[in-house]
Structure formats: C-alpha cells, structure tokens
Specification:
The chain has 245 residues and is of the alpha/beta class. It has a single domain, classed as Metallo-beta-lactamase, Chain A (4-Layer Sandwich). Helices cover 25% and strands 27% of the residues. The protein contains seven helices and 15 strands. The strands form four sheets. Strands 1-2-5-6-7-8-9 form a seven-stranded mixed β-sheet, covered by helices on one side. The protein has a four-stranded mixed β-sheet with strand order 10-13-14-15, with helices on one face. A two-stranded antiparallel ribbon has the order 3-4. It is globular, with a radius of gyration of 17 Å. Bound molecules: fe (ii) ion. Fe (ii) ion (FE2) binds next to loops. Fe (ii) ion binds next to loops.
Length: 245
C-alpha cells in the first residue's frame, strides 16, 4: 500500500523531496467524501501502486493544488484522471498558465450563485491563509495557501504554513530546523518569519482557523500531529506572531 489510513475516510501518501538541498519529504492527503468521490490535496508523483490504492478507495473527483508551490504533480494527476476537477489557488493561473486548472478555490459563500451543492467538497471546509509569505531565492513570496478542515476526523490539513520535523528525519534536517524552526513544534520556519511582514492579516487567518474544532494536524513536510494539534498550532503561531491568540 502506498496510501496510509490516518482515520476513517482520510489517507496520506509520502515521497522524498529536497528543498534548498535539505531532505524535507512531501505528503499528499486524500479525503473520501460521501459517496465514492475522492479529494486529493497536494498530489505527489503518481505511480501504479498509488493509482491502484486510489482505485480501491473510490473515484478521484477533485485534485487540489493548495498553494503557489504544491502543483508539481497535479497536471499528471489531471492527465490520469481527466474527469476530475483540478482546483488551484487563483494566482497559480498567472504563475503557471500552462497548468490545466479547471477552477479557482474560493470561499464557501462564493459558491452561493453556483447551482448545486453549497460546497464542492461536503465535509471538507477551507480557508485562505492570507498574508503568509515564504522567503524564495527572489525574495519574499506569497504562498496563497488554502488550508482545509475535515470535520469528521477533526483534522486540520496544512501544506506549507507549518512544519513539524523530528528524529525520523536526517540529522541535517533536524539540525537546520532546530535552529530555523519547525523542529518538534508545529510552526513555520525562519524563512516565513523573515518574509511575512503583514502579521495582522496572518493573525486574522489564524484566528479563523482556531474556530475549527480540530485535534489532529497533517502537514506536508514533517510528521503528522495526531493529538493536541490545536494547542500546538496555537502555541506555534503565538511564537511566530509574537502575541497571544
Ligand atoms: Fe512545501
């Protein structure tokens, strides 16, 4: 099995990934909606094993590139599952116009004028993590990340807005994240601390996220926080923002 069950109707799959030469890995999340529809968030490289696993679970109906960085394998998914809707954060259309994006992710209320269900992913809510930036080689760069809440399993699904590395990662990754942040604490790293100047906007996004009743937090880089994730997320962002939440 490539996919690993995390909870009922919730799976993850991981692959190695290096960023700035550091082994950080990457993780995709799969949510099964009512019926057989599957939502794939932050897809990893597609393989026969992964396709077999997905085929046993249901129908890949939604492929989500949740921020301006996690789109590398989304087009391959769309090619393999042409009937699925490829969702992306809206600015990705400008950054990567060649991607076969079907729809921009938008807030629930923006679906009010669309016929059919109120949300395209019943049971899965989303919020825009406004104001958050990372430090790219070219300078501060917006992530434009959407974060997700799977209510049935009380799980918050983040991509690059927090990390949680530990001793399961290579020593260099441990060393760098001990210094730069995100080691055994659910928090952004020094790169985001330097790049994110609009702390007021980020605080607003974090406060909205904290209204969700989550206990587990899935991150794309680092280990999953299975319990007490809300308190750890709150503490990580209190340190990041330098204020109480
Ligand atoms: Fe990432």
């Amino acid at each position: 099995m490539v996919l690993r069950a995390v909870d009922r109707d919730l799976w993850v799959a991981e692959q190695p990934l290096r960023y700035f030469g550091l082994s950080v890995g990457t993780r995709m999340t799969v949510v099964k909606l009512a019926g057989d529809d599957l939502v794939v968030i932050s897809p990893i490289q597609l393989s026969d094993g992964l396709m077999n696993d997905l085929g046993e679970l249901g129908t890949v109906a939604h492929i989500i590139a949740p921020n301006l960085y996690h789109y590398l394998f989304a087009a391959d998914f769309k090619a393999a599952y042409p009937g699925a809707t490829f969702w992306a954060t809206s600015a990705l259309r400008g950054k990567k116009p060649e991607l076969p994006i079907d729809r921009a992710i938008c807030h629930r209320q923006d679906f009010a004028n669309v016929p059919g269900p109120e949300t395209p992913w019943p049971g899965l809510e989303c919020l825009f993590f406004d104001g958050f930036k990372t430090l790219a080689p070219s300078g501060p760069d917006p992530l434009d990340e959407w974060v997700f809440f799977h209510a049935a399993s009380r799980t918050l699904i983040l991509t690059d807005t927090a990390f949680c590395f530990d001793e399961t990662f290579p020593w260099l990754t441990q060393l760098v994240t001990k210094i730069g942040g995100g080691y055994k604490s659910l928090s952004p790293s020094l790169l985001e601390r330097v790049a994110t100047t609009d702390k007021v906007t980020v605080k607003g996004a974090v406060e909205q996220i904290l209204r969700w009743n989550f206990d587990r937090v899935i991150v794309a880089h680092g280990s999953i926080v299975d319990r007490n994730g809300k308190e750890q997320f709150k503490q990580g962002y209190e340190r990041f923002l330098g204020c109480a939440l």
